[in-house]
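can u do me a favor
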């Protein structure tokens, strides 16, 4: 019986114990959540680019007739066969909203509703990405409205009792434009509240709007990569997020939504002499205001909105090199690649989606613990005791705790040992081959040999009188990890030698 199965069974017992009480509703919501896609929140300061990144991830631009109001409300994006939206007022029943296609965008209309009237918004989109994880766009930290910032913080920390989803989210993507003290403060609050059992595995940092770094010059993405590397090495962030990736949501969104007519305009501009376009590309104002250009100013203004100045320079350079052989699909692939979105997608799938059952089970245990403390019925002490017993005995959580200790510098080990431990614990992905540093197509015999070698190494570390107690405990967890990996392989087939018949 897996950790997730045991957590589900305990959740069923908690539902029975609280039947007819207010907490039953919350526990039933958590039960439903166990079978749903992982919930990942997009968080960050105001103007960090959350909505643009979300659009890039789902492959669909969603705009609002009143963007200022919509960005102040927690908005859930889930998969649906047809686009639809609904508003969930604080003191009224949910009501449908207009969500209409306009060009490549879906436009959301709140009508007469205002942010202060709403608990949340729900948007359904036909998106393959949303079949894997539900995304939640949150209000920006540092908002001029203190209540808006507090709403986002309470939502992510699990301090609210929202009607639709009292159990919150499973993981967070936090957007940074530059490392601000309030970013660290917020991540520390998040660590203490929502993810005290698993941070930093449940949080990833994104250096957002990376195409604008250094003024959006030709080396903006390269500068962003260097800054992200520096952030990854910052002890304050390393203890709070798993890693920091540079991502341009704008380039990613353009890669997902670039229209044929926009590509045609880019081809016309690429056909102009370089001495004509060079002054235009010095700024957005010059690009739009340039006279005697075969693309009208309003369409050039749209290109600036869609691509930004970095994206324009990148696109025109690429199209000039390809000439008449240039294809829209090639440009889309280039924009997507330079955006950093593929790396973020890979990380979300390997680190969040692959840990889906463990993260959800841990969320369920947190919910049981919270309910039993808020409503201490006779069965509450026993339920809390079972929660603690599950947490202590679950090797999956032991791995997550050790990975957290590695990232926070609490394990005394050599750099090569730390790298080996991180990978074996699933820091680069939870597949068996990835954990062992082997290619996906490695034969079972090679995998089995690698497991045995790793188990033997950590066994020697655990039994060495020179190993500190913290390292001994870590080695014992890693030995158990190796044993679990070995159990996933089919039994080795014995080779039977047949003796030749007697002469």
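np, heres the sequence
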């Amino acid at each position: 019986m897996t950790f997730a199965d045991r957590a589900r069974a305990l959740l069923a017992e908690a539902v029975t114990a609280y039947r007819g009480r207010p907490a039953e509703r919350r526990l039933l919501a958590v039960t439903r959540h166990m079978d749903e896609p992982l919930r990942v929140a997009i968080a960050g300061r105001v103007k960090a680019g959350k909505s643009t990144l979300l659009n890039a991830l789902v492959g669909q631009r969603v705009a609002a007739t009143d963007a200022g109001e919509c960005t102040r409300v927690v908005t859930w994006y889930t998969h649906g066969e047809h686009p639809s939206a609904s508003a969930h007022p604080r003191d009224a029943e949910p009501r449908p909203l207009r969500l209409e296609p306009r060009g490549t965008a879906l436009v959301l209309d709140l009508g007469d509703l205002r942010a202060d009237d709403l608990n949340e918004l729900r948007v359904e989109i036909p998106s393959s990405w949303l079949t894997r994880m539900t995304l939640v766009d949150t209000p920006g930290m540092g908002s001029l409205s203190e209540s808006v910032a507090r709403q986002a913080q309470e939502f992510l920390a699990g301090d609210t009792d929202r009607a639709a989803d009292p159990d919150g989210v499973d993981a967070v993507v936090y957007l940074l434009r530059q490392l601000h003290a309030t970013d660290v403060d917020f991540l520390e609050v998040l660590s203490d509240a929502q993810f005290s059992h698993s941070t930093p595995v449940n949080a990833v940092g994104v250096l957002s709007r990376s195409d604008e770094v250094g003024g959006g010059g030709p080396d903006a993405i390269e500068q962003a990569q260097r800054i992200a590397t520096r952030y990854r090495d910052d002890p304050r962030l390393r203890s709070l997020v798993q890693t920091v990736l540079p991502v341009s949501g704008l380039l990613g969104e353009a890669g997902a939504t670039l229209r044929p007519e926009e590509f045609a305009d880019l081809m016309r501009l690429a056909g102009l002499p370089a001495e004509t376009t060079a002054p235009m590309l010095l700024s957005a104002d010059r690009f739009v205001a340039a006279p005697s250009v075969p693309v009208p100013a309003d369409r050039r203004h749209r290109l600036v909105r869609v691509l930004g100045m970095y994206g324009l320079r990148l696109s025109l350079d690429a199209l000039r090199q390809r000439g008449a052989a240039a294809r829209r699909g090639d440009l889309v692939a280039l924009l997507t690649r330079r955006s950093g979105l593929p790396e973020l997608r890979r990380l979300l799938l390997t680190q969040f989606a692959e840990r889906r059952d463990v993260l959800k089970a841990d969320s369920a245990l947190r919910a049981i613990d919270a309910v039993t403390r808020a409503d201490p019925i006779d069965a509450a002490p026993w339920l809390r005791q079972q929660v603690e017993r599950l947490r202590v005995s679950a090797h999956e959580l032991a791995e997550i705790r050790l990975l957290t200790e590695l990232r926070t510098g609490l394990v005394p080990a050599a750099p090569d040992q730390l790298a080996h431990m991180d990978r074996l614990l699933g820091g680069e992905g939870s597949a068996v081959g990835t954990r062992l540093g082997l290619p996906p197509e490695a034969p079972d015999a090679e995998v089995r040999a690698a497991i045995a070698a790793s188990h033997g190494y950590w066994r020697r570390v655990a039994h060495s009188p020179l190993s500190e107690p913290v390292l001994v405990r870590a080695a014992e967890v890693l030995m158990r990890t190796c044993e679990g990996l070995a159990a996933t392989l089919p039994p080795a087939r014995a080779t039977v030698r047949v003796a030749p018949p007697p002469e």
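DSSP finds 22 helices and eleven strands in the chain. hope that helps!!
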